[in-house]
Design goal:
Layout: H1 2-5, H2 8-39, H3 42-56, H4 62-68, H5 71-85, H6 98-126, H7 132-145, H8 150-161, H9 163-183, H10 198-211, H11 213-243, H12 251-267, H13 269-276, H14 278-295, H15 301-328, H16 335-360, H17 366-385, H18 388-392, H19 396-404
Helix pairs in contact: 2-3, 2-6, 2-8, 2-9, 3-6, 3-11, 3-16, 4-6, 4-16, 5-6, 5-9, 6-16, 7-12, 7-13, 7-15, 8-9, 8-12, 10-16, 11-16, 11-17, 12-15, 13-14, 14-15, 14-17
């Protein structure tokens, strides 16, 4: 970490992401709690996440923009736009304004997907290929560590000062992130132009992800996993309300426990990934999440805290493994589209599962949904753990060879 943070450019890059995520994390939890307080409905609260995911899934063509311009200037503009896009929430003063909340969350999701693709692509420029695992590990540890404070910050803001203060603070974090990007002096290569038809350029990321065996397997496992995580967006409110018999704001306490688990797991994630590989690290995270979901079912506070900590521990393992595998197996000129394609391939089923989970929660006991979520996680882990490509394709040289053998995906 000391070696990585000795680089000024990486410090600015990571600080910008941390500041932006600080506002995002507090806002996501706060919007759900806010809707729950306005309507009394766990399903309506969960649909705020559905709106966000729908927006996130609408950005496949945005990856082409990321690959056709320099990423740092693009990120500066996107952060400034996001600072403005969040402000309409200040107009909501009752449940009749739910449509404004959902509309803002769709736009918020779209910008988040575009920003995430640009950040993933810029990371390849800022960090040498051999240190991507360590850089992703450092970044995810810091981002997941924010869950120790941001849930309580978000829940407290809603309960004490109202959503307006948090909206303004979130906009300020986007402005600060833009300023830090301005301070960077990274030399980016000129964007690569292509004579291919526009449709082939837009779909190049999807074709790449689905043509590289290791990436295709990760997508399939991720689809199963995000289905379970999608159910969790609504189920978490039922766990707090029906299982633990606590007010909606108590969700902030559970999410802080999740952050604690994420920090502990994230600290050693890069070293663990070097030993076992990216795919096995993702599989380990899936098992941890499955066990964590099961512990939420009894309605016992100690078990719920342990369960949310295990779910938190799963996140850096899953995310670091996925992002590093994608970065190592994708040429820089295709990175924006590949990341956008990966996001769309997993967020579309996640959006559907959020909607289905919100509907099922009205007629099915939340404990049954938790059992189904556990089964999906273990199935995904079993699939990934039995794939040979995840165990043998572990070196940068092997990953580069895998990229070179993909046919028909040139940008």
């Amino acid at each position: 970490m000391r070696r990585l943070l000795a680089r000024r450019e990486l410090r600015c890059f990571i600080a910008g992401q941390v500041l932006s995520t600080l506002g995002d994390s507090a806002m996501w939890i706060a919007v759900g709690i806010w809707i729950k307080m306005l309507t009394g409905s766990s399903s309506a609260a969960g649909l705020s996440f559905f709106a966000f995911i729908v927006g996130n899934a609408c950005s496949p063509a945005a990856g082409l923009l990321v690959d056709r311009v320099r990423r740092r200037p693009l990120l500066i503009r996107l952060n400034l736009l996001a600072a403005v896009a969040i402000l309409p929430l200040l107009l909501v003063h009752g449940r009749h304004g739910l449509w404004i909340i959902y509309t803002v969350m769709v736009g918020y999701g779209f910008l988040n997907g575009l920003i995430a693709s640009a950040q993933t692509a810029l990371m390849q420029t800022v960090v040498p290929a051999g240190e991507l695992g360590e850089a992703n590990g450092l970044l995810q540890t810091l981002l997941q560590g924010l869950r120790l404070v941001t849930p309580l910050l978000g829940a407290g803001a809603v309960a004490v000062v109202g959503i307006g203060t948090l909206v303004v603070a979130d906009a300020a974090t986007f402005l600060a992130a833009a300023l830090l990007l301005v301070l960077m002096r990274t030399e980016e290569p000129a964007p690569v132009r292509s004579a291919e038809r526009m449709t082939r350029q837009v779909t190049a990321g999807v074709r790449h992800v689905l043509s590289v065996p290791a990436l295709r397997q990760l997508v399939l496992a991720a689809v199963l996993a995000v289905t379970a995580f999608g159910f969790a967006e609504s189920v978490c409110f039922a766990v707090v309300d029906q299982g633990l018999h606590r007010p909606p704001a108590f969700l902030g306490v559970l999410t802080s426990a999740q952050g604690a688990g994420a920090v502990v797991a994230g600290i050693g994630a890069a070293a663990l990934m070097r030993r076992i590989g990216e795919g096995p690290l993702v599989a380990l995270g899936l098992v941890a999440a499955g066990a964590g979901f099961l512990l939420l079912a009894p309605g016992i506070l100690a078990a719920a805290l342990l369960g949310t900590a295990l779910v938190g521990a799963s996140l850096p393992w899953i995310l670091i493994g996925l992002v590093t595998s994608l970065q190592r197996r994708t040429p820089p000129e295709l990175m924006g589209r590949a990341d956008a394609a990966f996001n769309v391939l997993v967020t579309v089923p996640q959006a559907a599962s959020i909607a289905v989970g919100a509907a099922l929660l009205a007629v099915v006991d939340f404990r049954l949904l938790l059992c189904a979520m556990t089964a999906l996680m273990l199935l995904a882990a079993a699939f990934l753990g039995t794939r040979r490509d995840q165990r043998t394709d572990r070196t940068p040289e092997a990953a580069e060879a895998a990229v070179q053998t993909v046919a028909g995906v040139e940008p």
